[in-house]
Amino acid sequence: MNTKVSIVRCDSYTSSLVFEAVKKSIDMLAGIDAFVKPGTRVLVKPNLLMAKEPEFGITTHPEVVRAVIKLLKEINCKIFLGDGPSVWGAQSENVDEVYERTGIKRISEEEGVELVRFDKKRWREKFPLTTWLDNCDYFISVPKFKTHELTTLTGAIKNLFGLVSDTYKTELHRKYFNASDFSNILVDVYEEAQPALTVIDGIIAMEGDGPATSGKLYEAGLILSGSDCVALDSILALIMGLQPSDVLTTKEAAGRGLGIADIKSIQVLGEPLENVMEKHFELPQASLRRRLPRPITDIVRQLIRFYPKIEHAKCIRCGLCIKACPKKVMSMKNNRINIDYSGCISCFCCQEICPASAIKVKKSLFAKLIGL
Question: Shortest CA distance to 25 belongs to which of 73, 64, 74?
Answer without folding.
Answer: 64
